[in-house]
Amino acid sequence: xxxxxxxxxxxxxxxxxxxxxxxxxxxxxxxxxxxxxxxxxxxxxxxxxxxxxxxxxxxxxxxxxxxxxxxxxxxxxxxxxxxxxxxxxxxxxxxxxxxxxxxxxxxxxxxxxxxxxxxxxxxxxxxxxxxxxxxxxxxxxxxxxxxxxxxxxxxxxxxxxxxxxxxxxxxxxxxxxxxxxxxxxxxxxxxxxxxxxxxxxxxxxxxxxxxxxxxxxxxxxxxxxxxxxxxxxxxxxxxxxxxxxxxxxxxxxxxxxxxxxxxxxxxxxxxxxxxxxxxxxxxxxxxxxxxxxxxxxxxxxxxxxxxxxxxxxxxxxxxxxxxxxxxxxxxxxxxxxxxxxxxxxxxxxxxxxxxxxxxxxxxxxxxxxxxxxxxxxxxxxxxxxxxxxxxxxxxxxxxxxxxxxxxxxxxxxxxxxxxxxxxxxxxxxxxxxxxxxxxxxxxxxxxxxxxxxxxxxxxxxxxxxxxxxxxxxxxxxxxxxxxxxxxxxxxxxxxxxxxxxxxxxxxxxxxxxxxxxxxxxxxxxxxxxxxxxxxxxxxxxxxxxxxxxxxxxxxxxxxxxxxxxxxxxxxxxxxxxxx
Length: 579
Hints:
This protein is mainly α. It has one domain: Up-down Bundle (Sodium/glucose cotransporter), CATH 1.20.1730. 73% of the residues lie in helices and 0% in strands. The chain contains 24 helices and no strands. The chain has helices spanning 8-29, 36-41, 48-59, 62-75, 81-84, 87-104, 109-116, 119-153, 157-211, 213-224, 229-243, 267-281, 283-290, 295-311, 313-316, 318-326, 335-343, 345-353, 359-394, 400-422, 432-456, 462-485, 496-517, 551-569. The protein is globular.
């Protein structure tokens, strides 16, 4: 393989990125180790643009640059739903969950579950969160980034993982959430600029030197309709090897029940389980919301994140469609080799299209994506370990300074574990994106079901919650084993989305039945700080004025734009721009 070569200008751009990042991280982290509130929640002083930028930067990583683009190459435009489908949960966050969670005054989501249910559920959720953060986020992100560096520069995989971990984790360990959030703001700008630059270069290549980007976009859509030539053959191979259907529409989110990534019938349940768990219950995402200045800044931060989600498919999906348009023959090889090869597709685009002088920008974008997620996950995992496990069970009277020191040490230990696990993620086979989503499908349903029912209905008690959690986790394992071991299982059980839907529905039913069959929860477990009181929850408070700075205006505009975009992806005859 021919590896990347960098010019002096590339080294300058890449070095300048880290110099600026270092200055911001140092400035933002000064004095943040004085109290646990400063270290773990940035002193609750983050403005909306930092909340939103950090929310997105924490979300986007090698999983997207490597795994999601590879999945888009195989499955097409439907992958954009993973960005635009946040419409429902972001709206719930803005209007209901943010007022509710900020009013509760919690540091962590396990702390909230203790107030609503019991200390044992707090500990259980804290342990599951720590495990899922290390296995489903840190290890996978480090592996994906190291794979890119290995493909681009020929680096040893172990060395790449260790280098990424050390560079990425430094600001989370030094300055806590404040350093993480402010460096994330720079990172998300670099990621978008670098990612969109690659997309533009790819569309120009497809369109030819004379025709330009618009013709390239038209050509990309035409080839992804897969009606002729090698594109049709490749698309038939995707249909046969994944959905089991005779044909496949690459440009629609309306997909059959056997679709590996997006079985349409399961989408409402995936939103109510995985999306709720990821965006609301997941500490490394919700932590920057809890660290906002006030409700207005928290809400506007999520709206800002929502607008970034509108354009993210230009970075995470369109390159995958371009890869299919350029290299359909990749999908005609042995299927067990197709998915890992697709994960390397973005690297192939970079090698082929990005000239010297711009490679440093792309490298900064990739490193930025990885370091922002590693920083965020590391800080939130240390927060949960320190406050929900260490302080809760080992040293309940620990001082603020002592807790901060524990947070620093636990960050180092967690990072070391993730480095070791990251080396072996690739040996599991399959797509990086699907690996991560499959783990979400295991962890998310029981806790999302318990959280939603617990805040919406005061009759839900700790017995119902425990029954749903234990059965849900067991159901996740049982479904995966059944699919792996029984070759006669129905094909619609293969997609992790359908497994998620089944598990979530069963968890809801069990939680309700067991709660109704056991005593009602005590009054202090169903107060207005832990259950939604529709009379006291003033969702129209803290909107901001004048109208052009208001939450309502920007949310309404964002909502309409996303509905139109999702509607376009639901059209079986995707509109083509004129030649």
